[in-house]
Structure formats: structure tokens, C-alpha cells
């Protein structure tokens, strides 16, 4: 027995080849086995020798796949029937490794033997000329029931039997190879053994020195048999391959389906997460600008659109509503040059909140393209075929609408529609939240404004004030200014600074301010007011050193009477430009006990200006306070103009946007002609491009009314650029105010965006850059200032 | 000149440059909260999104190798999109020489300048010409202030712009 081989199908055989395993015997084995048979038997000197070689061949070359021969026994039988009429048959039987051929008797006792003998007789009787005569065959005989002459016990495997390869030789002769199997052979083995039977015959005939004609016939039969098997199996194989292929495709398909389903599930899970995330983000977002951007970004992502837009209604302060939009997936510049969408058949369902519009190809939609002049998308519009629009509705009110586009058709499915609808309802709730929040916040801010009232205007002087908390101390500080009309027509001017930071200082400041107002209304003299305040500081906030200037301006607005408690001296600018610090009599700070504060007086001529300020204006890290005062004196002595613009430009020059301390200013101007008051016109606009010509028109008419038409060209251009800039960048409601003051006209554009004015960050070559270049070239002065909840951009032009 | 066509963005409305509410009422000093300020949409008109404000009237005259577009109205942030839309159509893009006649334009802002430069650059890159004529003093001034007189070709008259036509 050969040792077990790692390849169960081919065991090693003595001549170096491999054993063919009958369990996996196929076409390839059939061909190889036939070839090996020919080699093994070739050159046998006699029929007996050939029969012997055949027996050895089958014994050695066919295995059971487990290292043993496939056969329990191998017999080669040669039968001669000298006379066809006779019943007798002379048999020669050959076994592998037997000493030589011996005569054999098969008595036909058993059914298998019976059948074998019957076939041998038939084969021996066949002649080559009769086409109907039996040819080589492979028979499967049932198992022996146990043979007396068995050399070894018959295997008990019920599957055993005998495989017989046999056929006619020369007329009157036949052969059979009987292979007693160990195991049940595969069902198709007999078929593959057909050519082997022919091969055995050919080998026996050759060894017998048969005529070339007989050999040729046998060879032809071999070929025909082989061809037949191959043909049958080729057909079978083709069918199998086709079957396999379709099974493979089926498998691939189901695998693909499985993968797809898995992907869908994963996507679904991601979508659910995303929707939840979007929902919680939106719900938590109270800032409208951020909210709508979040919403459009999320919805665009979920819809798979190339780009998306969210149009939403905003209610202005005076109750008017107007439309704004945000974009996702595309820069705003792609739409800036188009007018707002109109109430076309395509847009109407969304803007009126009637329902979702989803189209695989909107350009093929019957609602598309009915409105002049574009009849569809305006030229230069990003290409849109797939279109999805979902309104955002809250309790019957249309709050806005989502619009999505893609340049390919059929991109939006029902699922996308559902997802976006989900985002839309979340957006509706979030918008409502944001609006509620905004109302509450506005109410709170209104309250704060009441606590820190704007200074009132008084006859005979123009005044303004500034309060800028330190950069690091947003909102609360100890500086204050006040302007208090007194019962007898005089006006009290106050500037003060409670040392210390934050809420504590602010709380002390609030009490002092209130007390100061009360003392002022009692008609106390400046020195008396400071004396009372000093006692109060000791009482309520011992140790909180406080400085203060308290001045009273008479009814004629011509004389000042003042007292100072350790504070930086007010600066007085004479009409001609001379600047004097009023520092003759400065008493100690408040909070150092009851003191008598000295008073001093100063004259305020027509055209004079007075500045009260806290140390934040002139004191700065890295700069000595004397240097700051010198700079302030220089600025005051220089060209001055409208008081608001003066304040801004001085703060800009001295603090440069990074004040270390709070800054408070009170600035007064006594006009040359007290009857000529400042005149102002203001108007609010929504942030739409139409605001630009409207504001230009407002300014142009106002100047005409003021008799200043010669300034119209310059001021309308400045108005145009500043309003366009606010519309383009701030995108919040805006206010345009034009004021006349002395020989100046000031234009202010206020928006509610706390972002830094984009004027300064526009790259060269953009409109904004050129716009600010124009403003800078034309205006006498211009600047910006941050205000509570927004910013002001202003420009000033001289009237002569 | 072979063909006439006029263009406006909103059909019939274009010839009626008045539907912008705010200017209609006289500005009132110290009345910043005037109701209806701004071109607001009445709340009940939840679908009306018609743009407001003045628009341009554009008149195009085509020659075999050129086009002259006469502009009437202010060219600003509001109307520049309309002008660009009209001048960047394929027919206009392909014409070898495009001249903007600004005789009836008394106002331009930086958006207009941006559009001129943009048009000039694009056409120049394509080997096509672009120029302005009929500059009014205010328009000439801002072109001079921004040094664009040295960039965009200017013609004193239409005849100079189209020699031999």
C-alpha cells in the first residue's frame, strides 16, 4: 500500500505517476488513464503478457483516494470459443502479480458470473462485419455474496460489486477485466471506463498480432467511444457551467442585494442619527442666522442635492416682513446677480406652503417656464434638472421654504423628500423658538436701555456720549457719564469712574449715578454734590476709590461751574481751535471722607467744544498717561466736525480698538447759531438690493430740501456703497441716517451684524474693495463703530 | 445697425421704474420708525416676491461685427445683475466689439465698475473688444478716482468707437 498522500485524489504509484482516484474520475482522468494504459501495455510480446500488464495496470493505477488500490481484486479474462455453435468457452484468467496465466473455470453459479459468461459468449460470437454486434462495454455487476475462493475476506461494504470492462477481440475471442470494488464506485465511472475498455482491447489485439484492419477498427472504436463520452460530458459540462454561472450570478445578486440592504440599513441608521443631531442642534440654536444655515446645510446633505437654499421670512421691527435666503453647497456669488425668485407656478406651492414639489426634471415640468422674461431659470443660473422644494410651515404660517437642485435628472427620491420634510418640521419649530427667544431678548435689552438711558438732548448744545467697556470686561464696568437737565433750565454734566472691575464696580456706579441725579435735581452746587457723593462712597462701598467731574452749564450755555474729585480734567476747545485742560482746582477722589471740593469756572463760547472723559481714553498699557493727554490735545486742536464722527475718530486714534480699560465720553458742542439745530432723517430698509437705490433717493431728496444739492453726487455715491456693502455682507435690516451739523453732513448706515465690517477684508479687485476706495476718496472722514447688537459705518462730508 | 431689441428683467414692469415704495413718501425728519419703511412686502402677500426698485432700459443695436448697447438708468448694486445678464448672453459674448453707450447713465457705483472690469477682462481674454462711450461727468469721475480709465477703453463718441461703420 502506498503511503497516504496529501492529495487524496492522486496517490503515488511505483512508476512515479499518480494513482487516479475512482471517486473523482472524470474526463481528464479518462484521457490520461487511457494514455498511461497504452504506455503500460505497449510492446507486450504476447496476449498473455498484455493481459498481465493490463491487470497490473488496473491494480496499480487506480486508487480509492486514500492510498490503496481502488480494487479488492482484479481479474483479466480471455475467452476463446473455437466454434460458435458450441456452448463451451475456454477461459484464461490473469491476476496481477500472479506467476502466469492459468486456465480458469467459472461455473456460473452466481448471478454475476452467469452474466459475465453470457456477455463473454456474446462478445466472442461477434464479428467485426456486423454493425449490430456487441462492442466493448462496461458492466456493473451486483456484489458477490461471498466467494469460496476468495484470497481474503470479502469486504463487508454493502456497496461493493464488480465493474467489468469487456468486449470482442478477434472473431471467436473476447476479453473482460473484472474489477472487484472496495467501495461503491461513482455512478458515472462506468461511462468513463468505456474508452478504457476499448484501450484494453486495442492493447490485446496489438499483442496478438492482429491484422492492421482489425487494429484500425478497434482504434476507431476507441476514438468514437471517447468522442461520445466527451461529447456527452461537454454537453453536460456546458449545462453545468451555465447552471453554475446562473447560480453564481444568483449568488452575486443576492450578495449584492445583501450588501445593498446592509448599506441601506447603515445609511438609514446614519440618517436617523443625523436627523436626531440636526433636530437637537436646531432646537438648541437661538441665533437665527446660525439656525437657518445649519438647517440648509443639514437638509442639503440629506437630500443629496448639488446645492440647496432656504428662503425665510423675517419680521422687521416695524412689522413688515421680507424674504432672506441662505445657501449650502454653493457660494452666494452664484446667485447674487439674480433677482429674488418670483411667485411662479414652480415656486408658488412652496412660498404659499401648499406642499412639496419634487420633480425628476423640472425643465420638463408643465409648470416650468411660463414667466417672462426668463421663461425658466435666468441665464447663468446653475443647471437644475432634479428639483425638490419643501415649505416650512408652523401652525398654518409659512415661515420659509427649502429648495434643492441637481444638474442630473431623477436624483431626488421619495426618501429624500421624507428626510427633508423631517428637517423642515424641525426647522419650523426651531424658527419659532428662535423668534420667541428674540422677543424675550429684545424685551431684556429694552429693560437694560431703561436702566442705562440714552442721554437726553438739551436746547442750545449738541451733545453725544460713548460708553465702551474694556475689551476683556464686556458689558459691566464702573465708568459712567450723565447729562441731567435741571429744573431751572441749567444742565448738569457728569463723568465718573468707580475703581475696580466687573459687576461690583458697576453696582457701585449705578448707586452713585442715581444718587448724583438726585443731588443734581435738588439744585446742589457742584462742590456740594461731590461732598455728598464722597460720604456716600464711604458708606456704601468703603475702599472703592471713585473719581468724578460734576459741572453745571448755565441756561445761556455760556458758562460752566464745576468741581472735580481726582478725575482727569475736561478738555475745552475754543472756537478757533485752542485747547485747554480745565485743571485749576482738582480735589481728592471720592471715598476719602467728608471733604470740601473746590470749584472752578470756565467760559463756553459759541463754537466751543467740551470733552469729559475717563482715563480709559488716554491711558493705555505701554503709553504714559501724559503722552495720551498730549495726543488728545493734538486731536482736539485739529480739524473737528460733526460730534459723532469726532468721537469715533478720536476713540479710534487713541484706543485703536483695544482699550485696556472702560472708556466713557461726554462731548458737547455749543453751535455758533443756537437756532440752527442738527437735522436728521433716518429710514429703515430690509437687506435687499432695492434698498440701495431707495436709500440713494432718500439722501438725494434730503440734501435738496436742506439746500445742499451740490453734495448730492458725493453723498449718494457714499450712501450707495455703504448700503450695498451692508446688504451684501451684513444681511440684516439696516438703517440709513443722514444728519446735518454745522458745516458737515454725516451719513450713517447701521446694521445688526456684529461681524467686523467686511469693508476692510474684501480682497483687492472685489466690488467691496473698490467701493471703500471710493468712500475713502470722497468722504472728509469715515469710520465704523460697534454698537450694542450691531455696528455703524459712517462718513462725513463738508458742506463747503 | 441691423436689428433692434430691448431687454428688461421683468417684462412690462421694466418701463415703470416706480414700484419701490419707500421713496414715494416724503422723508420726514426724526421719523425713523415710519411704518412701511423700506420695500417691504405686506405680510398677507405670502407669495409675492417681485423685486422692487428701478431697473435699466437696455437697447441693443447689432452690426455685423459689433453691438452697441445703450443703457438708460443708474447702474448700481441693484441693476448690475440685469446688465450683466444682458451682456453675457451667447450672442453678446460672441460679437467681436461690444460698446456700452452710457449717455443716459448719470450714476454708477462700484458694482458697475466691477461689471465693466469683469466684462472687459472676459472679452479681452477671448480676443474680443469692449469699450464705453457717452460718459457723464459723475460716471467719468468715479472711473478716474479708481484709475479704471487706464484699463477699460473709453471712446469720446460712438463714431470713434466704431470707425468706418
Features:
heterodimer; A: 800 residues; alpha+beta; Beta-Lactamase; Phosphatase 2c, domain 1; 6-stranded antiparallel sheet; 5-stranded antiparallel sheet; 38% helix; rod-shaped; B: 165 residues; alpha/beta; Transcription Regulator spoIIAA; 6-stranded mixed sheet; 20% strand; disordered N terminus; Anti-sigma factor antagonist (chain B); STAS_dom (chain B)
The termini of chain A sit apart by 125 Å
**What's the helix count of chain A?**
16
Q: Taking all residues together, what is the mean pLDDT of chain B?
A: 72
- The oligomeric state is heterodimer
Helix count of chain B, per DSSP?
A: 6
Strand percentage of chain B lies at 15-25%
CATH topology (fold) name of the domain at 75-160 in chain B: Transcription Regulator spoIIAA
Q: Give the terminus-to-terminus CA distance of chain B.
A: 9 Å
Domain GAF (chain A): 287-441
Keywords (chain A): Coiled coil, Hydrolase
Domain PPM-type phosphatase (chain A): 461-670
Coiled coil (chain A): 241-275
Structure description:
By secondary structure, chain A is an alpha+beta fold. Chain A has four domains: 10-233, Beta-Lactamase, CATH 3.30.450; 285-363 and 379-447, GAF domain (Beta-Lactamase, 2-Layer Sandwich), CATH 3.30.450; 462-669, Phosphatase 2c, domain 1; 679-798, Histidine kinase-like ATPase, C-terminal domain (Heat Shock Protein 90). Chain A is built from 16 helices and 29 strands. Chain B is built from six helices and six strands, in the order βαββααβαβαβα. By secondary structure, chain B is an alpha/beta fold. The radius of gyration of chain B is 18 Å and the shape is globular. Chain B has a six-stranded mixed sheet. Chain B has a domain at 75-160: Transcription Regulator spoIIAA (2-Layer Sandwich), CATH 3.30.750. At the A-B interface, strand 11, strand 25, helix 14, helix 15 and helix 16 of A face helix 2, helix 4 and helix 5 of B.
Amino acid at each position: 500500500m502506498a503511503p497516504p498522500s496529501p492529495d487524496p485524489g492522486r496517490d503515488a504509484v511505483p512508476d512515479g505517476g499518480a494513482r487516479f482516484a475512482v471517486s473523482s474520475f472524470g474526463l481528464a482522468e479518462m484521457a490520461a488513464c487511457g494514455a498511461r494504459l497504452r504506455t503500460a501495455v505497449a510492446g507486450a510480446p504476447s496476449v498473455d503478457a498484455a493481459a498481465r500488464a493490463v491487470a497490473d495496470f488496473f491494480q496499480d493505477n487506480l486508487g480509492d483516494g486514500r492510498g490503496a488500490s481502488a480494487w479488492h481484486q482484479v481479474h483479466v479474462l480471455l475467452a476463446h470459443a473455437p466454434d460458435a455453435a458450441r456452448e463451451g468457452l475456454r477461459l484464461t484468467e490473469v491476476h496481477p502479480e500472479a506467476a502466469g496465466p492459468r486456465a480458469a473455470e467459472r461455473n456460473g453459479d452466481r448471478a454475476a458470473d452467469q452474466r459475465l459468461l453470457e456477455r463473454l459468449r456474446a462478445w466472442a460470437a461477434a464479428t467485426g462485419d456486423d454493425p449490430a454486434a456487441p462492442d466493448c462495454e462496461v458492466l456493473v455487476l451486483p456484489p458477490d455474496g461471498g466467494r469460496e475462493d476468495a484470497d481474503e475476506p470479502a469486504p463487508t461494504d454493502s456497496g461493493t460489486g464488480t465493474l467489468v470492462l469487456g468486449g470482442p477481440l478477434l472473431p471467436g475471442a473476447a476479453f473482460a477485466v473484472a474489477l472487484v470494488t472496495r467501495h461503491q464506485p461513482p455512478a458515472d465511472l462506468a461511462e468513463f471506463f468505456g474508452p478504457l475498455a476499448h484501450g484494453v482491447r486495442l492493447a490485446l489485439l496489438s499483442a496478438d498480432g492482429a491484422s492492421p484492419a482489425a487494429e484500425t477498427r478497434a482504434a476507431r472504436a476507441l476514438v468514437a467511444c471517447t468522442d461520445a463520452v466527451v461529447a456527452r460530458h461537454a454537453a453536460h459540462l456546458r449545462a453545468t457551467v451555465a447552471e453554475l454561472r446562473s447560480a453564481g450570478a444568483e449568488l452575486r445578486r443576492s450578495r449584492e442585494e445583501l450588501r445593498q440592504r446592509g448599506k441601506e440599513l447603515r445609511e438609514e441608521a446614519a440618517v436617523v442619527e443625523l436627523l436626531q443631531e440636526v433636530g437637537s442642534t436646531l432646537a438648541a440654536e437661538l441665533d437665527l442666522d446660525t439656525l437657518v444655515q445649519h438647517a440648509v446645510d443639514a437638509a442639503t446633505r440629506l437630500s443629496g442635492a448639488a446645492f440647496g437654499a432656504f428662503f425665510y421670512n423675517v419680521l422687521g421691527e416695524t412689522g413688515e416682513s421680507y424674504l432672506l435666503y441662505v445657501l449650502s453647497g454653493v457660494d452666494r456669488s452664484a446667485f447674487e446677480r439674480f433677482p429674488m425668485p418670483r411667485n411662479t407656478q414652480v415656486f408658488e406651492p412652496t412660498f404659499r406652503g401648499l406642499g412639496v414639489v419634487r420633480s425628476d426634471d423640472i425643465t420638463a415640468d408643465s409648470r416650468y417656464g411660463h414667466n417672462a422674461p426668463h421663461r425658466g431659470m435666468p441665464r447663468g443660473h446653475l443647471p437644475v434638472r432634479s428639483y425638490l422644494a419643501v415649505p416650512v410651515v408652523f401652525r398654518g404660517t409659512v415661515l420659509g421654504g427649502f429648495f434643492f437642485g441637481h444638474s442630473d435628472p431623477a436624483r431626488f427620491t421619495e426618501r429624500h423628500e421624507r428626510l427633508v420634510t423631517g428637517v423642515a418640521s424641525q426647522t419650523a419649530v426651531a424658527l419659532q423658538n428662535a423668534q420667541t427667544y428674540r422677543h424675550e431678548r429684545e424685551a431684556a435689552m429694552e429693560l437694560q436701555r431703561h436702566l442705562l438711558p440714552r442721554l437726553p438732548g438739551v436746547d442750545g448744545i449738541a451733545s453725544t456720549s460713548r460708553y465702551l467697556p474694556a475689551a476683556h470686561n464686556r458689558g459691566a464696568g464702573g465708568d459712567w457719564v450723565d447729562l441731567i437737565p435741571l429744573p431751572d433750565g441749567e444742565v448738569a454734566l457728569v463723568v465718573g469712574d468707580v475703581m475696580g472691575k466687573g459687576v461690583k464696580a458697576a453696582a457701585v456706579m449705578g448707586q452713585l449715578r442715581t444718587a448724583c441725579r438726585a443731588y443734581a435735581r435738588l439744585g446742589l452746587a457742584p462742590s456740594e454734590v461731590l461732598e455728598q457723593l464722597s460720604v456716600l462712597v464711604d458708606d456704601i462701598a468703603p475702599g472703592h476709590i471713585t473719581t468724578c467731574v460734576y459741572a453745571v452749564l448755565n441756561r445761556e450755555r455760556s458758562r460752566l461751574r464745576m468741581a472735580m474729585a481726582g478725575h482727569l480734567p475736561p478738555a475745552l476747545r475754543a472756537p478757533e481751535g485752542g485747547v485747554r485742560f480745565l485743571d485749576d482746582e482738582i480735589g481728592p477722589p471720592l471715598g476719602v471722607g467728608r471733604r470740601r471740593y473746590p470749584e472752578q469756572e470756565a467760559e463756553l463760547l459759541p463754537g466751543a467744544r467740551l470733552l469729559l472723559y475717563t482715563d480709559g481714553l488716554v491711558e493705555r498699557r505701554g503709553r504714559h498717561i501724559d503722552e495720551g493727554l498730549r495726543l488728545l490735545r493734538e486731536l482736539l486742536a485739529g480739524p473737528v466736525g460733526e460730534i459723532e464722527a469726532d468721537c469715533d475718530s478720536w476713540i479710534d486714534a487713541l484706543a485703536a480698538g483695544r482699550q485696556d480699560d472702560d472708556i466713557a465720553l461726554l462731548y458737547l458742542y455749543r453751535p455758533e447759531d443756537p437756532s440752527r439745530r442738527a437735522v436728521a432723517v433716518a429710514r429703515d430698509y430690509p437687506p435687499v438690493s432695492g434698498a440701495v437705490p431707495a436709500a440713494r433717493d432718500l439722501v438725494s431728496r434730503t440734501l435738496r430740501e436742506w439746500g445742499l444739492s451740490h453734495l448730492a453726487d458725493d453723498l449718494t455715491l457714499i450712501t450707495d456703497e455703504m448700503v450695498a456693502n451692508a446688504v451684501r455682507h451684513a444681511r440684516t435690516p439696516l438703517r440709513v441716517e443722514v444728519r446735518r451739523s454745522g458745516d458737515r453732513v454725516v451719513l450713517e448706515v447701521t446694521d445688526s451684524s456684529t461681524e467686523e465690517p467686511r469693508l476692510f477684508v474684501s480682497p483687492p479687485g472685489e466690488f467691496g474693495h473698490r467701493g471703500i476706495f471710493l468712500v475713502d476718496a470722497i468722504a472728509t472722514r469715515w469710520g465704523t463703530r460697534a454698537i450694542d447688537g450691531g455696528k455703524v459705518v459712517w462718513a462725513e462730508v463738508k458742506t463747503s | 445697425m441691423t436689428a433692434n431689441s430691448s431687454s428688461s428683467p421683468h417684462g412690462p414692469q421694466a418701463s415703470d421704474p416706480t414700484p419701490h415704495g419707500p421713496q414715494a413718501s416724503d422723508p420726514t425728519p426724526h421719523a425713523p420708525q415710519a411704518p412701511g419703511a423700506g420695500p417691504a412686502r405686506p405680510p398677507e402677500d405670502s407669495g409675492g416676491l417681485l423685486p422692487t426698485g428701478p431697473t435699466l432700459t437696455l437697447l441693443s443695436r447689432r452690426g455685423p461685427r459689433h453691438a452697441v448697447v445703450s443703457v438708460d438708468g443708474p447702474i448700481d448694486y441693484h441693476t448690475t445683475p440685469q446688465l450683466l445678464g444682458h451682456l453675457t448672453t451667447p450672442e453678446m459674448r460672441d460679437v467681436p466689439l461690444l460698446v456700452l453707450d452710457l449717455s443716459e447713465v448719470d450714476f454708477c457705483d462700484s458694482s458697475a465698475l466691477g461689471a465693466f472690469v469683469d466684462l472687459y477682462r472676459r472679452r479681452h481674454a477671448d480676443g474680443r473688444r469692449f469699450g464705453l462711450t457717452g460718459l457723464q461727468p459723475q460716471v467719468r469721475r468715479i472711473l478716474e478716482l479708481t484709475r479704471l480709465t487706464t484699463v477699460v477703453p473709453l471712446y469720446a463718441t460712438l463714431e470713434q468707437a466704431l470707425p468706418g461703420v
